[in-house]
Write a structure and sequence with these properties.
The chain has 305 residues and is of the alpha+beta class. The chain has two domains: 2-172 and 290-302, Ribosomal Protein S5, domain 2 (2-Layer Sandwich); 178-288, GHMP kinase, C-terminal domain (Alpha-Beta Plaits, 2-Layer Sandwich). Helix content is 36%, strand content 29%. It contains nine helices and 13 strands. It has helices at residues 77-86, 105-119, 125-139, 145-151, 190-212, 218-232, 237-243, 269-276, 293-302; strands at 2-3, 9-10, 19-35, 44-62, 65-68, 71-72, 89-94, 155-160, 168-172, 178-184, 252-256, 259-265, 284-288. The strands form two sheets. Strands 3, 4, 5, 6, 7, 8, 9, 10, 11, 12 and 13 form an eleven-stranded mixed β-sheet that branches. Strands 1-2 form a two-stranded antiparallel sheet. β1 and β2 (9-10) form a beta hairpin. α2 (105-119) runs antiparallel to α3 (125-139). It starts with a strand and ends with a helix.
Length: 305
C-alpha cells in the first residue's frame, strides 16, 4: 500500500483498494454551432465556453454501481460507458449542479466514468476520452463539452470539432479575479435545444463564433454569448428586468440552455449573489478552472506507477 499526494490509499495493481477521489470540471458553453460528420469522433461543435469548478466530485471504490447524490444513474452516456468499461467498480458522483440544466453534467459524469476505467487499468486515457465523447454524441446529450473539459481551462475555445485528438481546443486564462454566479431557470436537454432552436443556433452560432475569433478576450466572449442567448430565444423580458439593476456590478451574462450565467469580479460576487438570491430559486458560485483536466488525471496516474 502507498499513499498518493492526496493521502489516498492506493494499491498499485489492476484492483482498486480503498478509495480514489478526484474532481472533473463543469463547462458552460457561451455560444456554438454543430458540426455533424459520418462518425461520432468527427462530429462535434465549434464555439467557446467557461470551464468551471467546483465540478463533479468522483469517489471510486470496489463494489458495483454508478451514483449521483446517492441515486443510481441507469441511463445516459455515463451509464452507457459504465456498462462497457466500469462494471465491477463503484463510482459515486456529487456536485453543486442540476443535471439537464446546462452545466455540462453529462460530459463531466461520462468523463468521470472514463477516468475510473483508466485508473482501474481497463483503458488508456486518450481512448477513454474518445469513448466519452462518442457516448455523448450517440446519446444526443452534447457535442463539444467533453473536448472542452478534457483539453481546456478558463475560457475554452473549440477551434476544430470532434473527439479529443481530433478536435482542437485552445484556452485563455481568465485569472483568479473572476467568479461565476449561476442559477437554474429550468431544464432543457441538448436534443430539445437543437430540435427547438437548431436553425437559429447554426446561423447565429456561426456568426458570433467568427466575430469572436477577431477578439478572443473575456469581454468579447461575454458580449457575444449574451447576443447568442438573445437571438436564439433563451432570454425573456423577466430576466432582462431582473438583471438590469445590477448591470454596474457585473462583467457580463448569458444563458446556457436553462442556466443563467453571470460573470463578476471576485470582490463583487458575494454581494451580488446575496442581493439577487431572493429573486431566484437557487444561486451557486463557481471559479474558473485554470488547469487542463487531462493533466490532473495524468498526475493521479503518475502516483500509481
Amino acid at each position: 500500500m502507498k499513499r498518493d499526494a492526496w493521502g489516498l490509499d492506493i494499491k498499485f495493481d489492476s484492483a482498486i483498494d480503498g478509495k480514489i477521489v478526484f474532481e472533473v470540471p463543469l463547462h458552460l458553453t457561451g455560444f456554438f454551432y454543430p458540426v455533424f460528420d459520418v462518425t461520432p469522433e468527427r462530429t462535434g461543435s465549434l464555439g467557446a465556453g467557461l470551464v468551471i469548478r467546483p465540478g463533479l466530485h468522483c469517489t471510486l471504490s470496489t463494489g458495483e454501481g454508478l451514483w449521483f447524490r446517492n441515486r443510481a444513474l441507469v441511463e445516459g452516456p455515463a451509464y452507457e460507458l459504465y456498462k462497457s468499461l466500469g462494471e465491477g467498480l463503484s463510482i459515486s458522483l456529487d456536485g453543486d449542479c442540476m443535471p439537464g440544466a446546462g452545466y455540462g453534467f453529462s460530459a463531466a459524469s461520462t468523463l468521470a466514468v472514463a477516468a475510473c476505467a483508466v485508473l482501474a487499468r481497463r483503458v488508456d486515457p486518450v481512448e477513454a476520452a474518445i469513448q466519452a465523447h462518442n457516448a455523448e454524441v450517440r446519446n444526443r446529450t452534447g457535442l463539444g463539452d467533453v473536448s472542452a473539459i478534457w483539453s481546456g481551462y478558463g475560457l475554452a475555445i473549440r477551434k476544430k470539432a470532434g473527439a479529443p485528438t481530433i478536435g482542437v481546443v485552445e484556452s485563455l486564462s481568465i485569472g483568479d479575479n473572476v467568479e461565476i454566479v449561476t442559477s437554474e431557470l429550468g431544464r432543457l436537454s441538448t436534443e430539445s435545444l437543437l430540435s427547438r432552436y437548431g436553425e437559429k443556433i447554426a446561423e447565429v452560432g456561426r456568426e458570433v463564433y467568427r466575430e469572436f475569433l477577431k477578439d478572443t478576450s473575456l469581454e468579447a466572449f461575454l458580449t457575444l454569448a449574451n447576443r447568442f442567448s438573445r437571438e436564439i430565444g433563451l432570454v425573456d423580458e423577466r430576466l432582462e428586468a431582473l438583471l438590469k439593476p445590477f448591470s454596474r456590478h457585473i462583467l457580463g451574462w448569458y444563458v446556457k440552455k436553462r442556466v443563467l450565467v453571470v460573470v463578476t469580479e471576485k470582490s463583487e460576487a458575494p454581494e451580488f449573489a446575496k442581493n439577487i438570491g431572493p429573486k431566484l430559486k437557487v444561486v451557486r458560485l463557481f471559479t474558473p478552472s485554470e488547469e487542463v483536466w487531462k493533466r490532473y488525471l495524468e498526475t493521479i496516474l503518475a502516483t500509481r506507477h
